[in-house]
Amino acid sequence: MSIVLFGGEKGGTGKTTLATNMAAMLALQGKDVLLLDTDRQGTASFWATVREDSEIEPRIASVQKFGKGLASQVRDLAERYDEIIIDAGGRDSMELRYSLGVSDRVYIPVQPFQFDIWTIRQMDELVEMAQGLNENLQAFIVLNRVSTNPAVREDLETREFFEKEEFQHLSLLDSVLRDRIAFRKSGRDGLSVVEWKQDKKAADEMNQLYKEVYGGY
Ligand SMILES: Nc1ncnc2c1ncn2[C@@H]1O[C@H](COP(=O)(O)OP(=O)(O)OP(=O)(O)O)[C@@H](O)[C@H]1O
Ligand SMILES: [Mg+2]
Predict the structure, then answer these.
(1) What are phi and psi for residue 108, nearest 5 degrees?
(2) Where are the domains of the chain?
(3) Between 144 and which of 76, 109, 125, 213 could a Cys-Cys bridge form, CB atoms 3.0 to 4.6 Å apart?
């Protein structure tokens, strides 16, 4: 059982895309998964509603929770599900902080073209603070929307940069997701990109990520 958070202080980096894909992939493995939407924009819940309305199997339970009671509610929910995935909104919210307090792992999507030292430092500090309350917490950066053009070596450049900076509390995952329309289109249909079946490269990338997020635990 694990509580996995997709979070970060920047908007539009891919948190909901990763959270919904991981939820569907766990469900495909027969896990009883809860997708917990703590973002008032409700994007993850909307995805789950589209999935529900289209009667896509496997069904995925989804709830929205906000505010102060969040941490204790997550602990209660953790007793009832095999896996919990939390999707947090793209800012330093109360929900992000409470979620960091109860999660086993947090994955922070970052787009190489907007990789800036300031934001990563902020997250490093936020994770440090959260680890003071939740010593189990592990934090990872995931490169998302990397250019599909091999001449653009932005993932390698970002990796070099990341290593040089030596962040104390963050590690960078090996798997990357590239900028592919498949991630957008599958999401609109309430599907994961592996269920969408129209882009093998996109599905392979998401499978790699899934292995890194859930394989070793
Ligand atoms: N690898 C990708 N390739 C192409 N499009 C992507 C990729 N990842 C995410 N997107 C698209 O970028 C947009 C933002 O992604 P998403 O909603 O997952 O970000 P978010 O971090 O949850 O945003 P917010 O901070 O608003 O909650 C969406 O339209 C999504 O489909
Ligand atoms: Mg989102």
Answers:
(1) -115, 105
(2) 2-215
(3) 109
* Residues 182, 193 contacting (CB under 8 angstroms): yes
Any atom of ligand 1 within 6 Å of the Cβ of 107: no
Q: Which residue has the tokens 């009883």?
A: 32
Q: What is the pTM of this model?
A: 0.97
CATH code for 2-215?
A: 3.40.50.300
Per DSSP, helices labelled H in 91-199 are: 94-102, 117-133, 154-165, 181-188, 193-196
Neighbours of 122 (CB within 10 A): 15
Q: How far is the CA of 144 from the centre of ligand 2 (A)?
A: 14
Structural contact between residues 104 and 131, judged by C-beta atoms closer than 8 angstroms: no
Check if 93 has its Cβ closer than 6 Å to any atom of ligand 1.
Answer: no
Written as six digits, the tokens of 7 are 């979070």
Using CA positions, which residue lies closest to atom 15 of ligand 1?
14
